[in-house]
Amino acid sequence: MATRHEFKTEVRQLLQLMINSLYSNRDIFLRELVANAADAIDKARLESLTDPAQARDWKIRIEADKNLKTLSISDNGIGMTEQEVLDNIGTIAQSGTRAFMKMLEEKGTKGEDLPELIGQFGVGFYSAFMAASEVTVVTKKSGSDAPAVLWRSQGEGEFEIDTAEREEPGTTVTLKLKEDAEIYLEHWKVSSIIRKYSDFISYPIVMPKVTVNEDKTETVTDEVLNSQKAIWLRKPSEVTEDEYKSFYSGLSNYGGTEYLKAIHMSAEGTSEFKALLFLPKQAPFNLLMPDIQKKGLQLYVTRVFITDECKDLLPDYLRFVCGVVDSSDLPLNVSREILQDNPIIGRIEKAVTARIITELKKLLENDREHYEAFFTEFGRILKEGLHTDFTNGEKLKDVVMYQSMNHEPGKFITLGEYVDAMPEGQNEIFYITGEKRAALDSYPGLEYFKAKGWDVLFMTDPVDDWIMQSMMQYRKHNFKSIAKGDFEDKESEEAMKKAGETYKELTEFIKETLSGQLAEVRFSARMTDSPCCLIVEGNALSPHIERLFKAMHQQIPETKRILELNPKHPLIEKLNAALQAGKKDEAASAAKVMFAQALITEGSPLDDPAGFAKSVTELLVKSL
Q: Exposure pattern of 39-53 as b/e (b: 16+ CB <10 Å)?
């Protein structure tokens, strides 16, 4: 005889939330019910290892009845006794409903966020009421002589328990679909959900499919909806190149099937997971558009799809990597919110990051051509880790690359190669930041280093200035910008001091002429051929990053430059001679042109381009 039972208060609240709210991803209910069915088969299969009589042809079956408007999900798994039904459906102890509802209240979670949360607390079964006006469960315990049990509810505070007719062990969940959920009666809809969420469940998920023959008769056959082929669980030697390409094409948002490298991972111990990661060949158009770029790896838990964008599995500077992580430690259907603080996710992220960096170093050492092509595409992103990932910062320094003064345009070198080539007497790693190689090549401050035979790294990515604020050393050699700070050269120290005394009146005149535009005017041995150059103090923003901020309409304090003069250049001597001869107007005009040329050389815009052109014209006229 049927008996009626009341749901606990928290369950009634949950059911009302399920029934009365609208969800952005209603499909989730089918994922939950299929995952429960696979779980039940797992338990029965485990029992069959010690009791072979319990072994059977494991299968999950989905059936849609368009006349009755019902959708059924059946398994031949472990099944439940009447007491287990009472324990597992509708009570606090087993379902975790109280914790779930408390979390919703504390977090202020909205209805549209619910699909991503339900599985974490073992309440996935209740998601059926998102689509159903009534749910019926018929279940028979495997290996038990007890009759099958029927559970039925309309989700309105009560449920019914009765006996039922069922010979085979397992469970069938039947949903009487709401009018606005009848799309789930369509074969194509069910099939697409299974392929998205449950494709890699290791048991066949079958559904009858009707085929209309040429003679207008119909043939009904069982179609297997899932592939059951989790490519990441197979040995690399068992996966064909076509399978890799097909899988990569479905994973990535880069387009095409070409990838640079596939990386298999299998971790055991404190965190057990398997992963298949891909290094892409080409950057997508939206690589530098964080608002529209898909980031993160696909996350599965025991082959059940959870999310295709688990950002916490990768640091942001590896966001170009795509792939799959399948964990056996995480709770099934863990929510995105819970992922952020889950220590298991943290351990997986640490292992995945270390492996990717190791593979990048191998690629650099063994296939330099392909690595340089890869770095050209993704280097600017990878370098962000130098500033953000203190754990792997030193390892990342081994795989970043730069162009340099002593190498032809387009040629990359590593920091290790720079240090190995440092001549005797050089103790620092010199660099300069800017927008383009061509502009940096003409910077006057390079002249001293050319004369010495010392190399200078050219850093032309927008992130380089930001990164160099925290990148202090490599192999115990300090980094030093050649466009910042004092220039230390003991051999010329006395000569520069003497020049300062000789041309004291000139330096004061130039500073007065360019009042408000310069922090200081001084002499330096930094140049051998050019008359002057502009530098900034060590902690000030570089001209390059200052221009970037202005391009983004960011308000930043104006940095006044230091104008360094070359006392050996004829222009400095002629400027001084004109000043001594009382030709202050001519000297002032020449000083302004010289300053404007220095701004152009460093890549900075002129406040008055027309005035500069006029001054140059006047000087040309006078010289002819």
A: bbbbebbeebeeeee
